[in-house]
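Morning F.,

Quick status update on the modeling queue. The single chain you submitted on Monday has been processed. Sequence for confirmation:
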Amino acid sequence: MTLSAVAVATLAGCSSSGQGAIATASASQQTSVLTTASFPSVVGDAVGAARSAHVDMTITASGNTITADGDVSYGDATSGTVMAMTMNLPTMSNVDMRFVGGKIYIDLGAQTQNKYVAIDPANGSNAISKSFASIADSADPGKAFNLVKSAISSVTVAGAPVTLDGVEATPYTVSLMTSGLLSALGLPTTATSTLPPQIDYTYWIGPDNLIRKETFTLAGTSEELDYSKWGEPVSVQAPDPGQITQMAGL
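Structure tokens below.
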């Protein structure tokens, strides 16, 4: 349910084919356990207030491990989402990706002569552009929760709090009905025949209602995202024109 996973999954597909903290709530302000009804809005509002984070991610699938880390600032009414991320993909050198000004810039190393390819998600003329079309909303966990909240069947405390990012974070299991999730994401519900009826995510939520960790496992693929540096400034610049090249199919 995040941009990071969307971006890395898309780039992994490309590789196989040849891609100052703000003030937040204190511990005393988390007055109750989050519920199925309250989780999407409470966590979403906290993310919206903080607006930025550092993300470290690990995805394991088919014996391969993909790692990534970067910084993201979630857009609001006055500014768009921006992100800078470095990824380590199987069989490829480090991949650098930036999302700024509504466009994605990807440096695939030798495949792009160590320059960036520009992708416009608004251009629906090719499959890769289409795959990035919802990248801004996917980047923002708050918007993602709002998008799929109708598919959430239950939210339950999954254990004792643990220390993450310097705070005590409580784990919650968030269960989503697969058919409702696919429908909310605009995907064909026929895919449910190959998926379990329910998908469980685990989120570790701090006393400020911000996500400190997210995990899930599905069809042999596991994902872990660690969030830190909530509210710190994020600055991302588009590459200079001389750093941009063309690549067939993009």
